[in-house]
Write a structure and sequence with these properties.
The chain is an alpha/beta fold and about 425 residues long. It contains twelve helices and ten strands.
Amino acid sequence: MEMRSLFVVLFCSGYVTCQLWRKGVVHYAINKKDYDVHSQDEIITTLSQLQNEICVKFFYTPNNYTADEKDKILFINNPDKRKNCPPSVYNFTGSVIDMPIGYKCINRKDIARIVMDMLRASVEQTVSTINSYDLVKKFQERDADSTHPTLLSPPDRNYINAHYHVECGSQAQRSVASRRLGDTTDPLQLTPDNLEFYKDKIWPLAIVMYGVDEKLRTKPDYTLLKYAMTTIELASCVVFQEIVTSDGVLTPKNYIWFTNDGEEVPQLGFREGKQTINLESMVHGAPGHTAHVLVNLMRALGVPMMSNRFDRDNYVTIDWRKIQKGKEHHFERAPASAWVATPYDFESVTHAPANYMCGDCDLGGQSVKPLQDHLWQRTLSMGHATQPSDSDGKLLDLLYRDQCRERMSDNLEVMKKTADN
């Protein structure tokens, strides 16, 4: 196994610049102006099914999702309103790779063929044909079981799995900690990488400005939102400040607005301008997740989910086959730069429950499985906390320490001036 991995790495780095999808993950978006709801669903369903046949993962990219700057986006569109699907030339030099799908090709067989052509193009721009054939022979599989029809032929499946062997391996690779608790005299310090990752995700003065449609103020969802905000305020120095547009006060430039439509979840951390969020999705969202509203508020504060942590594969296993189609991006690991030196916490309000975003869990299936779980204690408890854990509070205070101090300093200055007058 080590020799095979070494062969692929040396070959890829020794001859050309790799064009493979990083970590075997394809972030994709669909131009909704080109495809109706049924066509979008057929595309998403096909990509989800392909994940069961090859190691490559397809993460649907919502409008407010910001991928890592090193990631590319596969843009599925049909700008020319084509009906058929002639062979396409794929250019992997930019950050956006266009993959047109004609209207007569909106079926799983043709979509799978087009995706296969795209993946082959990513490989062919990386390695030569002769060595590709030699490599595939190392990964030969038996023909697929005829009783379980598949979208890809065994040669196609073998080809992709062979060339993406190393990239896909990083999805479940056990993280080797580059720093451990106890390595420094004070582990609760942000590293330079942490500061770089979080610098544009922190709300100024640790104040989150938000507003809500007047017609929603009497709704139970609004009460749950306010309660969750108060819960976080009691556990940290962060403040949620509501704005009321009818009181004559100028509306701030940067704030979150809750209404009946908008995005399902806030963006990760501070963003300039107005974010419009669906209040019902914000509060209830994922079935089975007791702390969903708290998770989303923590996300708005810039905190990734505990179960998305860089080292999460040391503690939990993600069953990609169980995840709802189009929801895979919710399980993507956060970059190493987001990893703060605090212990992994199954009791965190940001930890996913066992059936998080699960599309096939009617009979007790799990999308998130603890690696070590005595008497199912972690399986039953994780994702059901209703109060921030100690580590949640410490992380917020660590991230917002300077902004809170600045806010308090400003308040003291105002109080001093008022007293002097």
